[in-house]
Amino acid sequence: MNIKSQLQQLCGDTEFLRLNDVYIEPEKIQAIMINEIVPIDSDNDFYGKPDSAYMSTTIPLFRKAGIEVNNIQDILNLGIYITNAVKTPKSEYAVSKDSIEESLPYLEKELELFTNLKVVMLMGDVAKKAFNLISKKATGKNAVPGISTYKLRNTEILHKGWRILPSYIMTGQNILIEKSKFKMASEDIALMYELINKA
Question: What is residue 81's three-state secondary structure?
Answer without folding.
Answer: strand
